[in-house]
Write a structure and sequence with these properties.
InterPro entries: 6-hairpin_glycosidase_sf, Beta-AFase-like_GH127_cat. One of its GO terms (biological process) is carbohydrate metabolic process. This is DUF1680 family protein. The chain has 19 helices and 24 strands. About 40% of the residues lie in helices and about 20% in strands. Helix 6 packs parallel to helix 9, helix 13 packs across helix 15 and helix 16 packs across helix 18. Among the domains are: about 150 residues, no CATH class; about 120 residues, Maltose phosphorylase, domain 3, CATH 2.60.420; about 90 residues, no CATH class. A hairpin with a 4-residue loop joins strand 5 and strand 6. It is of the alpha+beta class. The termini are far apart.
Length: about 600
């Protein structure tokens, strides 16, 4: 079964954890001034007053109302201008999903500025870096990722066109691509392969997007030129070409291959994507969080213990691997990809966003006693600032899918609602996580109302309205410890890792679903006596300042931890503490940890 996500304006979040994080992200998008977002594009085009940098200290600029962006966006930094593309992509998706008029007005001002820069540069060059950076790349001289940088602006323009139907953005992207086309044509194949070995960025994906949008055969030419033989043919030959390679330079290439397959139908592209996933995940394993990198580098297969440090799990890699999992979920309908997405959403995307400020942690430390290091709104602009703002506009789109046979699939248990036109019929779907403290379920086998202790199941209420009979498919997550329990009017059966219900077509139907979980241990692959603790998909962090060994059995999470501070007002909370240990340690969800020192892995010393 192939799956299609609901249209962008047909799936929205409802109030809850993920919507809270989305709103925090939207505040950040709105807080950034248009002239600051465009500052480096203006400088490259020679536009605007230069007064602000005659007194360049941040304090004096801010005092004079000339707030500017610093860090990787500092004028003179070689990656200057990269963030604007991410901002445009995020703004376009947020506007398409929510209809945000204020953000649309801000985006229009940014597009006006970019259009002016392109015009002042002669009608093609739209970037904040000079053409000389490409010359340095071709000559083998030191330069920081010009194609990566240029791709971000093209990506932003393409996403504005695709998500919002903005033709002006498409025109700017196609005009800008002419300069790159002429550059590429200067090299024979061998010379260009040597350039691709240095860096490619996400160019392959944007060429596929532009081929789909325009039908212009020059983009087929560019797809073929950006086929990096050493990576793609190594994957197709069944070789591990990823270990110790920079991860987030190759994941965008796999995403580009995915788009190339979707646009051209050529099966070689699909085989590359499938081989990439096989080597990146299936044959490599993951940390307990779902992440796989350390210092931005792919770990060796199932060898993670020595790679725990303060620079584990780059946010960009987490975001892009979620995108790749979504591709394979859509192609195959296999819900194990949705399990991977869920683990990384909680223990990557949420865990690497500060719930207080919305800022990003570039890395998620997995060495004991480390802290998350949060970025700032305007003084860092790491690559992960860019994937941060994009990631939190996409949660609703990961929730609902329609199958090629008319089946509706619920892939994530996020508070959300969706509506889908199937032929002339509108199908409405709503997922509502049930607050256990207020749960009332008449004649329910999902658990009695008024439990005295925090129930050990995730409960959701699924409401579906359909005028005609329809199958509803709900993912049974990999962490589910027993068969799902249901109450309601819809008959159900388990099929292919999903709870499949038959809607009779009689209008609105409601069913309550309980997905049981057990507190469990997950060992690090190459040290089976070193474990993390998980509740459902959520990794629990112990609040410690150094590594501490626990006494007990590795498989006995229930004997090592007990519920702690579990109830606040009307809410149950995921809090634990150790029992029977020389030192008491408190645990909380990793995505709730902000400035505390913590550990997620604990050696277990067996009782004698």
């Amino acid at each position: 079964m192939t799956l299609t996500p609901f249209p962008l304006d047909a799936a929205q979040l409802e109030r809850g954890l993920f919507d809270d994080r989305r709103r925090r992200n939207r505040e950040y998008l709105m807080s950034l001034r248009e002239d600051a977002l465009l500052q480096n594009h203006y400088l490259e085009a020679g536009i605007g007053s230069q007064d602000w940098h005659l007194q360049p200290s941040k304090d004096s600029s801010a005092a004079r109302g000339l707030e500017r962006h610093w860090g990787w966006e500092t004028p003179g930094a070689q990656l200057r201008g990269h963030f604007l593309g991410h901002w445009m992509s995020a703004a376009a998706r947020e506007i398409a999903v929510t209809g945000d008029a204020a953000l649309r007005a801000k985006l229009d001002i940014v597009l006006d500025g970019l259009e002016r820069c392109q015009r002042e540069n002669g009608g093609e060059w739209v970037w904040a870096i000079p053409p000389s950076f490409l010359r340095r790349l071709e000559d083998g001289l030191a330069v920081w990722a010009p194609q990566y940088n240029m791709h971000k602006t093209l990506m932003g323009l393409v996403d504005v066109h695709r998500d919002l139907g903005d033709e002006r953005a498409l025109v700017m992207a196609t005009q800008a691509s002419q300069a790159l086309l002429r550059w590429v044509r200067r090299f024979d194949d061998e010379a260009f392969q040597r350039i691709l070995e240095v860096e490619t960025g996400g160019m392959l994906e944007v060429w596929a997007d532009l081929l789909e949008a325009t039908g212009d055969p020059v983009y087929e030419e560019l797809l073929d030129r950006y086929y990096r033989r050493s990576l793609f043919e190594g994957l197709l030959d069944g070789r591990d070409v990823l270990t110790n390679m920079h991860a987030n330079t190759t994941i965008p290439e796999a995403l580009g291959a995915a788009r190339a397959y979707e646009v051209t139908g050529e099966t070689r592209w699909r085989r590359i994507v499938e081989a990439y996933w096989d080597w990146a995940v299936t044959r490599r394993g993951t940390f307990c969080t779902g992440g796989q990198t350390s210092g931005e580098i792919w770990t060796p297969p199932f060898a993670f213990a020595a790679r725990r440090g303060d620079k584990t799990q780059e946010h960009c890699a987490v975001y892009n691997m979620i995108r790749l999992a979504d591709v394979l979920l859509r192609w195959t309908g296999d819900l194990t990809y949705a399990d991977y997405i869920e683990r990384n959403l909680y223990n990557g995307i949420l865990a690497q966003q500060d719930p207080r400020t919305g800022m990003v942690a570039y890395f998620l430390p997995l060495a004991a006693g480390e802290r998350k290091q949060w970025g700032t709104p305007t003084e860092d602009f790491w690559c992960c600032h860019g994937t941060l703002v994009q990631a939190h506009t996409r949660h609703a789109g990961l929730s609902f899918y329609s199958g090629d046979d008319g089946t509706v699939t619920i892939a994530q248990f996020i508070a959300a609602r969706g509506r889908l036109m199937i032929g002339d019929e509108q199908v409405d779907v709503r997922v509502t996580p049930i607050d256990d403290a207020a749960y009332v379920g008449p004649d329910s086998n999902a658990g009695p109302a008024g439990d005295l202790h925090r129930p050990s199941a995730l409960r959701i209420r699924l409401t579906v309205s359909s005028a005609t009979p329809r199958r509803i498919r709900v993912r049974i997550p990999e962490w589910c410890s027993a068969a799902p329990m249901t109450s309601g009017a819809l008959p159900s059966e388990i099929e292919g890792g999903a709870l499949v219900m038959a809607h009779d077509g009689g209008g609105e139907r409601r069913i309550d679903i309980a997905l049981p979980w057990e507190l469990r241990t997950v060992p690090i692959p190459d040290e089976p006596d070193t474990v993390a603790f998980l509740e459902g998909p959520v990794v629990l962090a112990g609040l410690v300042d150094h590594e501490i060994a626990l006494r007990g059995e590795t498989a006995s999470a229930q004997d090592l931890l007990r519920a702690d501070d579990e109830r606040h007002w009307s809410q149950w909370r995921s809090r634990y503490r150790t029992v029977g240990q020389p030192r008491s340690i408190r645990f909380r969800p990793l995505h709730e940890v902000t400035d505390e020192q913590y550990a997620v892995y604990f050696p277990i010393t067996r009782n004698r």
